[in-house]
Design brief:
Elements (H helix, E strand, L loop, with lengths): L5 H6 L6 H7 L7 E4 L3 E4 L12 E7 L9 H14 L4 E5 L4 H5 L7 E2 L2 E4 L1 H5 L5 H21 L6 E6 L3 E3 L9 E3 L10 E3 L1 E3 L4 H8 L3 H10 L1 E5 L4 E3 H4 L2 H7 L7 E5 L4 E4 L14 H10 L2 E5 L4 H16 L5 E6 L1 H7 L12 H21 L4 E5 L6 H13 L4 E4 L1 H4 L5 H11 L15 H13 L3 E4 L1 H13 L6 E4 L19 E10 L4 E6 L18 E2 L5 E2 L3
Parallel strand pairs: 3-16, 3-17, 4-15, 4-16, 8-11, 17-18, 18-19, 20-22, 21-23
Antiparallel strand pairs: 1-2, 2-14, 5-6, 6-14, 7-12, 9-10, 12-13, 14-15, 22-23, 24-25
Helix pairs in contact: 3-17, 6-7, 6-10, 8-10, 13-14, 14-15
Amino acid sequence: MSHLSDIEIASAADLRPIGDVAHDLGLSDEALYPIGHHMAKIDAEQLRERPQSGRVVLVTALTPTPAGEGKSTMTVGLTDGLNRIGVRAAAALREPSLGPVFGMKGGATGGGYAQVVPMEDINLHFTGDFHAITSANNLLAASIDNHIQQGNALGIDPRRIDFRRVLDMNDRALRQIVVGLGGPAQGVPREDQFTITVASEVMAVLCLATDLEDLKARLGRITVASTYDRRPVTVADIGVAGAMTVLLKRAVQPNLVQTLEGNPALIHGGPFANVAHGCSSVRATQTARRLADVVVTEAGFGADLGAEKFLDIKAPQADCYPDAVVLVATVRALKMHGGVAKDDLRTEDVDALRRGLANLDRHVTNMRGAGAEPVIAINAFVHDTDAEVEALRSWCVEQGLRSAVVEAWARGGAGAVDLAEQVSRALEQPAEMQSFYAADMTLEEKIRTLVTEVYRGDGAEFSSVARRKLAEYERQGWDRLPVCVAKTQYSFSDDPSLRGAPEGFTLTVRDLQVRTGAGFVVVLTGDIMTMPGLPKHPAALDMDITADGGVSGLS
């Protein structure tokens, strides 16, 4: 068991030249845009004629806890484990957001000896995709205000501008602001707010676009405001879809890096799953399927969020329903769902673990209902006891589930070989997965279906604001779009204190936001916010850099 930090492990790694990683995938030099020695953009256009024959393995998890479950670590470890048993596999992950990196959650490159590298570069500015998304988003925001300032030919009602400026950082002070102060030359005063970049519609559009043409068309369809007579105004009306696409020309191309064991990883796009659709880009998945036999991809947070949105939003649009599902579980999370406080998780408590299994069982039931028999990946931690692990494995046997104890954090791919073999067996009879709701259901029907059949609540209650928007969206023809539920990641309900497998609750829908470019409607519940704040002790306070550029405190 290593005592080194994640960044110390990553910094000591002997990385392969990115061209060698690309050549292993059958990529030519012409299809690669190197960025330094160990990162590159892939020209996906050159691969369009290749069939998408790679099978998709979706890594999801039980409901997360503040203790952490290690889904990205599992995705990387499984990719390395599959390659160790002779399966040509590639990972497809989301890009980290600077908000969590400097806030509370940390980076998103895995951990221990199951990481994607160069870890420092990926967790920070990477290839500049998020900067491009932020710039394109804010170009549009500036253009809307400029249109109003320059005569407002479209008749935009400043009180009904729905498009927000973005910043890839946690900053609660920007949640509610006033812009345009200072007199006529400074614009028209109005209320506004910032959203974190990863929750923006431009991020969602980039992640769902299939090519540059589709990207431009989706950007043009984004609804930004309403006129005084309540007609929707789009980016195409403002006239900057082309300019936004220019800014995103390189960003729409998938990024290629490697795992610590030198296996390929495509990291592209980064929508959060609690406030957005939580999946890496369609282009990355499609490109990986053209290059590898198996693509291991993850969806954010628990299966009620990321996996649901993968099946209801990404898969129908990209035709990439998973062939197998891995459901990550940890002893400590199960104990927490069974009522154990975070500070007491190191103490053995088999009874609490058994109580917590109700949460895992609900996720298993949901995945089975969608058409997959999940493989349970037991992410091992040093304080797990033999009795606790055996209780979890015995439960899996009783349920007829494949399972494996995974030590990828400590041993890399060698610690995930058992899981790789279990997944390979599962792929011998690929799942036939489907969405959780029918495409022709109304928005209200889709929301109620998720509440009753996935979250297992009694129903949904809509605020007066949400009710008005349901009626408006029906008038505009948006009432058959998929839904993207923004809710706490810590519970099946909209109350983060309800751990385990709560029942009898009502989900409160307080607002709706249409995303006509991305092609879904965001459903805001509880007190979920699209601009996080920093915690009392943010990770930034523990970071430093030496005179020679060495970084510490990054995880």
